Amino acid sequence: MEQVLTVRGLRKTFTLHTVDGRQVVSLRGVDLDVAAGEHVAVAGPSGAGKSSLLRCTQRSYVPDAGSVVLRTEHGPIDLAGLPDRDLARLRGRNLGYVSQFLATPPRTGPAEVVAAAARRRGLDREPARDAAAEALRGVGLDEGLWDVDCGVLSGGERQRVNLAAGTVRPPQLLLLDEPVSALDPANRELALQLIGSLRDRGVAVLAVFHDLDAIRRLATRVVELADGHIVRSGSADEVLGVAA
């Protein structure tokens, strides 16, 4: 399989706003590869560094050290040192991030949020609208809500909009941080089916789930983080069978 993401020696430390300014080490030299069509789930206890790994990969956190190389149609690019303007373009086309929370401009509806994501990934305006409609149907969002200000949607509805925007005309690499945590069983099932379908489309997925059933269902490989290190890597049965 073609490697899409290569992480080497990734380190991240946070300085706390305390009198002594003490530091907390989140990542201690993480090495990780994710290939096209591979779904890698990151497991581990709270505070192990799971979300820090995703955010350093997406570069919403700037790593202290290490490289985060994304292989694109223009060659390998190290996201860790990429200028902000180039990073913004890359996030639009090649790199997607779906968190638990949706941030949108005021008075913007789901259809426009998702269509804007599709345009950033290279679609013209009309095809982007069509792709947005398909994506919103795929996550089960009622059509009557498509032009409603996202700020008045429920938590589960906002999470589905976020997932639709992340998966519309999917990028090379998709990062998922608890993307189904607020969903009821029926909509969780739709979301898991959508995420699972990305494998056949060659999308590389790096995901954090606290839901062990979702990991077992979706992951082609599980890496377990503890104290900022990857301590185990293997199939879901190999890793979760020991960690459960």
Automatic annotation (TrEMBL):
Keywords annotated in UniProt: ATP-binding, Nucleotide-binding
Note the PROSITE patterns from the entry: ABC_TRANSPORTER_1, ABC_TRANSPORTER_2
Q: Which GO terms describe its molecular function?
A: ATP binding; ATP hydrolysis activity; transmembrane transporter activity
Q: Supply the Gene3D superfamilies for this chain.
A: P-loop containing nucleotide triphosphate hydrolases
Q: Does the keyword 4Fe-4S apply?
A: no
Q: Which InterPro entries match?
A: AAA+_ATPase, ABC_transporter-like_ATP-bd, ABC_transporter-like_CS, ABC_transpr_LolD-like, P-loop_NTPase
User: ABC transporter domain location, by residue?
Assistant: 5-244
* GO terms for cellular component: plasma membrane
Database matches in Pfam families: ABC_tran
Q: Which SMART domains match?
A: AAA (SM00382)
Protein name from the UniProt record: ATP-binding cassette domain-containing protein
